[in-house]
C-alpha cells in the first residue's frame, strides 16, 4: 500500500514529490506565537492563515490563533494596503493584542506590498506594537520564516541602553515547547539569567484551566525583547535557524553571539553547558552531572541493540544534524540524512559529521524530498527511520521501525510537551529508539527465540 | 447578545432566533473580514478537497510548496483501488520561477510524470501567484494533453478569488471538463455526488442502494477514478450528499446532460430513510421504494434499544454545531433532537440563505445561528448558551477542549463513518464517550494537599 515510488532513480528537476518542508509563513506564525500577547497576522489570502493554523493545531493539539488580511481579487490587483489597515483596526479593537506580528505570503510579496510603508501609515494605539517580516513562500522554507520572524522582532524592538542586564539571550531554534522548557531549565540550573526568543512554552503547551485564553500565559514579553539589546551574549541554537536573528541582534545592539548546534545528545548538550559554564566560571551543578551520567549509563546498557544499526533521518536541517550526531554517539550509522530546506551548509555539516565519526557510505541532501529518500531506501535499506509523521508511508511500505521526532507530527500526541534536547531529551530519544528496535525484534522473532529478558 | 466581542461588520452574519420567524435576514456567502480570526479556508482549499479523492489522478499543485504541503493526504478519503492521490506533487516554485515565470517548470513537471508513469489524468491547481506572474496554465495543460494523449485539466483556484465555495465551483468545472467529451450510453442507475468516502461512507451508501436495487454508476468524488468519472454521464439521476460542494456540479449536469438531481442526506435515521425513499421515487422504482421503507424500518427497529440505552446519558444536554455546509448542520440538528439533545448554537462556513432559513425554522428560541464564525464568537456563544459538546472540524477541536467541553469531529478527521445506520451508532457512541469521559471533572479541581 502507498508504494508508488520507483526504485531506480531518474531525472527529476521540476516536480517535487512528497516534500520534507513547507512554506515560510507557517514558521513565522509559530515564532510569533512565542511572543506574549501577540496576534500573528497573515498578509495574504485567508486560506494561508487557515492552513497554517490547521497545520500547527494538528502538531501541537492546541489552538493556534492568528488572523488574516483576507485578500480578495481587488487586493491582488490594487495591493493589500487597505486590508492591512482594516485588519489592524479590527484586531486592536476586538482582540486587543499587545503586539501584531505581520508576515507576508507569496501573494503579497509578488504583488509588491511594501510592509514598511504600510505599517508606518497605520495608527497604532498607545502602548501597542505592530511589526512585520517578509516571508516569501518561494524562498527557503518554514525554517527561514521562523528565522525571519525572530529577527524582525529584534530589528523592530530590541534596543541597547548601554547598561548590561547580565542576561543571556537564548534563541532556541525551531523546536517544541517541551524543548524550550528543557533549555530554560538547564540555564536555570546553571544559574544563568536569560531571555528566550521566541518561547512557545506556556502557549502551545498551555495547561487546561477550563478557560480559553486568546493569549495564554507563556511567550516572550515585549519588554524582554526590547532589553535583548542589553544582553551579554546570545546563544543561537541551530546555525541554519538562529544565525540570522543572532546577527541581527549583534548588528543592532552589538550583542556578541555564539552559534551552537541544537543540544541533542551528549556532545551537543555538553557544548551548551560548557557555553553557560564559560560565563559563570562555576562548577557545573551535580544535578546536570548526574543526568549526563545517567544518559551515558543508558547508552552503555543499550549499545548491543543499537550498534551499527542503519538509520535514515529526515526533517528540519538543524534537527536532523543533531539527531544524526546523537545516533552516531549510540553507535548507529546515519545512512541517509534529508532535509527539504535548501542551503549548502546542511550537506557540509553532515559530511563533517560523517568524517568525525569515521563513517563512509552515508548520504546527505538539502532540498530533498521524501520520494527521493524512499528511492534511496529501496536501493539500500535501513533498520530505522526517524522523522515527522509523513515518513509513516515509507515506514509502512518498507516495513521499517519508525521513531517520530521533529516537525510536524500530526498522528501522535504528547510529543510537543517532552524534550528531545538536553540529557533528559537524550534519555527520551534513546528510549524511543530502542523501544522501536526491540519491539521489532519481538515482532519478528521466531517462537523459540521469543525472549522474556532482553 | 451583540456584545463587545462581535465586530460591527460581523453583526449581520449572526442571528438569535426570536419568537416566530424573522425570515432569516442574516447575511452569508460573503468574503471574510480583514483582521478576523476566520475559521474559513480559500478557493484552492475548496477545489482541492473536492478533487483530492480521485484516486488515480496526479494532483499537481502549481505554486510555492506550502499549498501542496498543507493538503498532502489532507482528508481521510478511502480508496478501494489506487493510492496515487495520497502522494503530494508540486512544482515547488522558487524565486527564479516567480521572476521568469513558472510555465517551463510546470511543463517539465508534467513531462517527468508523463514519461515515467503514463497517467490518464492530471489535475493542475493554479494557486495565488500563478496568475499574478502571468503563467498560462491552460495553454500548458492543453499542449501537454495533446502531446502525451492524456487528460491534463487546469483547476483555476487562486486563493484570493473568493472563498471556499468558489473553490468547490472550480473543482466542479474541472470535473465537467473531464466528463466533457464523454457521452456513454444511458444506463439504469445513479451517481452519488458530494460524498468523499471519508472513513468509507460512500461504501455504506452504495451498499444501501444495492439492497434496495438501485445501481450506482459513479461516485463523485469519493473512491472515484478516471474510468468511473467518465462513465458518470450515463446515470439517470444524481443524488447530492454534500450540497455545499456539489450542488453546482449537479446543476451543470442537469443543464448540460439532462440528468436531474435531488439533495439527500445520510446523516441520522430519519434523513437516511427519507433519502432512500426519495431516491427510489425519483427513479420511479416502486419496488425499490417498498424495499427502502422495509429496510429503513428494520434498521430503525434494530437501533431502538441501542438508542434508548444511550438516550438516558444524553437527554437534556446542549449541543453546538460548527460545520462546513448548511445541509449537514440541518441533519445534525435532527440527530441531536432524536437523542433528546438541544442545539443551542449552530454555524456553518459556507451555508446558503435557504439553509439558514431551514435551520431557523428547526431550532428553539434563543438559539444562535452564525455564518463564518471566528473562535471568539464561537467561544462566547458556546459559553453563554452552556453547550456541553461542540461538533466541528480540526480547528474547533482544541477550542472545545480548552473550553472544557466535549467534541466530535464531523469533518476530515472523523475516524468512523458517521453516515447511515452504522453512522448513527458511531455518532451516538462518539458523542457519548466524549460527554461521559471522566477527564472533564478534573478541570476545575484544586490540587488537594
Automatic annotation (TrEMBL), chain A:
Molecular-function GO terms, alphabetical: nitrogenase activity
Regions annotated as coiled coil: none
Keywords linked to the UniProt accession: Nitrogen fixation
Gene3D superfamilies named among the record's database cross-references: Nitrogenase molybdenum iron protein domain, Nitrogenase Molybdenum-iron Protein, subunit B, domain 4
Keyword hit for DNA-binding: no
Domain of life per record: Bacteria
Boundaries of every Nitrogenase/oxidoreductase component domain copy: 23-437
InterPro entries for the chain: ChlB/BchB/BchZ, Nase/OxRdtase_comp1, Nase_comp1_CS
Family statement drawn from the similarity comment of this UniProt entry: Belongs to the NifD/NifK/NifE/NifN family.
PANTHER family to which the protein is assigned, alphabetical: LIGHT-INDEPENDENT PROTOCHLOROPHYLLIDE REDUCTASE SUBUNIT B
Stated name of the protein: Nitrogenase molybdenum-iron protein subunit beta
Organism: Mobilitalea sibirica
Phylogenetic placement of the source organism: Bacteria, Bacillati, Bacillota, Clostridia, Lachnospirales
UniProtKB/TrEMBL annotation, chain B:
Pathway: Cofactor biosynthesis; Fe-Mo cofactor biosynthesis
Domain Nitrogenase/oxidoreductase component, residue spans: 42-432
GO molecular function, one term: nitrogenase activity
Record-linked InterPro entries: Nase/OxRdtase_comp1, Nase_comp1_CS, NifE, NifE-like
Keywords for this protein: Nitrogen fixation
Signal peptide: none
SUPFAM superfamilies the UniProt entry points to: Helical backbone' metal receptor (SSF53807)
One GO term of the biological process aspect: protein-containing complex assembly
Function, in words: This protein may play a role in the biosynthesis of the prosthetic group of nitrogenase (FeMo cofactor).
Cross-referenced NCBIfam families: nifE
UniProt xrefs under PANTHER family: NITROGENASE IRON-MOLYBDENUM COFACTOR BIOSYNTHESIS PROTEIN NIFE (PTHR42956)
Assigned protein family: Belongs to the NifD/NifK/NifE/NifN family.
Annotated protein name in UniProt: Nitrogenase iron-molybdenum cofactor biosynthesis protein NifE
Organism in which the protein naturally occurs: Mobilitalea sibirica
Organism placement in taxonomy: Bacteria, Bacillati, Bacillota, Clostridia, Lachnospirales
Gene responsible for this protein: nifE
